[in-house]
Every structure is written in C-alpha cells, then in structure tokens.
From TrEMBL:
One GO cellular component term noted in the UniProt record for this chain: cytosol
GO BP terms in the entry: cell redox homeostasis; cellular response to stress; hydrogen peroxide catabolic process; response to oxidative stress
Protein name per UniProt: Peroxiredoxin
Species lineage: Bacteria, Pseudomonadati, Verrucomicrobiota, Verrucomicrobiia, Verrucomicrobiales
Pfam families attached to this UniProt entry: 1-cysPrx_C, AhpC-TSA
Cellular location(s): Cytoplasm
Length: 208
C-alpha cells in the first residue's frame, strides 16, 4: 500500500455524476488554491454498507463545506450506474438526495493510482493476463489541501465503514495547524489546547 501523505495527489480527468448531471471532464485541478478536497473511494454502487456512508457524507455536507472542503466520492462503477443509483429512492436502496459528485473510475486507473484497488493483474507462464480477486476499490479516504498535497489517508477493508466524525476532526486539526502553527496531539478536538512545535511548547502542554 502506497503512502501518499506529503505527496501531490494523483491527478485525473474522468466522468462524474452530480445530481442528475453527467460531467464529462471532472478534475481535481479545479479546486487548486480554492478548496480542500475529501476524496473517498467505495467498492460498489447498489450495495449495503456503501449507501450508509454516502448518505452520512450528505447529512454532514454542510459541516465539510463550512470548512471549505469539497466532498467527492469515487468507485469503479460507470457514470450510468452512478446516475441510476442517484435516481433511486433511499427506501429502495438508492442514494437519491446525494448532491456531491461521484466519479466513475470504470478503467480502474484512479483507484490504482491511489493504491486502493483490490484484486490484481497477474501474468501467466503463457504470457496471458489473468485477474485475481475483484477489481473494485477499498474504502480509501484522502484529505487533500489547497495546494493539492495529500495530508491524511486511511484505507478500510470492504466490510468496515468509516467515521465521519474522525474525518472532520482531522480537517479541524489540519486547519488549526495551518492557522496557528500549533500541532495537535492524540484525540485532539476543535477547541482543545494544542502544542507549539518546540520543546518549550511541549513541556508547557504536559505541565512540566
């Protein structure tokens, strides 16, 4: 698994769906210098755990937007699958009402570049290419700053849903550091004391 933290987020141009609209050339570069990006991957449309996450991101969308963060979902499904799922009522397993973009990574290149693609391509002794496992995305999440640098990543196995609260906490910690130059210790929450990044600051925080 690649660690992308501290590196430029892999760029891509792909089709995406936002509401009822299919976007032909969706890119991350449109947010450079303007917004943070929370890019999350999920395995499949029309499944069980995935809609709980997508609805939860929608329910907390104002919290992300108030922090200047654009939420973007991505899976290896096509734009047509995304569109159909977005038009399906929640009562029937759909995600109708989700308003943030869903990127279609049907060629698996985005998931591969972010190293969240399950399954693998294997060359046989005869030189043929076989696929082991299923080529869908793990539950990866990447926080990208305004300069396009990945500042946080977490990858869950498919049965394990993520924590929206933790995503917001990490955003708050990053923005606190950017605004105040103070580093945030374990379990830091917005409003807690932070530390100046020197020995004196650490000693003061520890009460020594």
């Amino acid at each position: 698994m690649s660690v992308l933290v501290g590196k430029k987020a892999p760029a891509f141009t792909a089709k995406a769906v936002k509401g009822e609209t299919i976007i032909e050339n969706f890119t991350l570069s449109q947010f450079l210098g303007k917004n943070y990006v929370l890019l999350f991957f999920y395995p499949k449309d029309f499944t069980f755990v995935c809609p709980t996450e997508l609805h939860r991101f929608q329910e907390e969308l104002e919290q992300f937007e108030s922090r200047g963060v654009k939420v973007i979902g991505c899976s290896t499904d096509s734009e047509f699958s995304h569109w159909a799922w977005l038009q399906t009522p929640r009562s029937k397993g759909g995600i109708q009402g989700v308003t943030y973009p869903l990127v279609a990574d049907i060629n698996k290149t985005i998931s591969s570049d972010y190293d969240v693609l399950a399954g693998d391509y294997v060359e046989t002794e005869d030189g043929d290419i076989e696929i082991t496992g299923e080529l869908v995305a793990y539950r990866g999440l990447f926080l990208i700053d305004k300069a396009g640098i990945v500042r946080h990543q977490v990858v869950n196995d498919m049965p394990l849903g993520r924590s929206i609260r933790e995503a917001l906490r990490v955003i708050d910690a990053l923005q606190h550091f950017e605004q105040h130059g103070e580093v945030c210790p374990m379990d830091w929450e917005k409003g807690d004391d932070a530390m100046t990044p020197d020995h004196e600051g650490v000693s003061n925080y520890l009460g020594k």
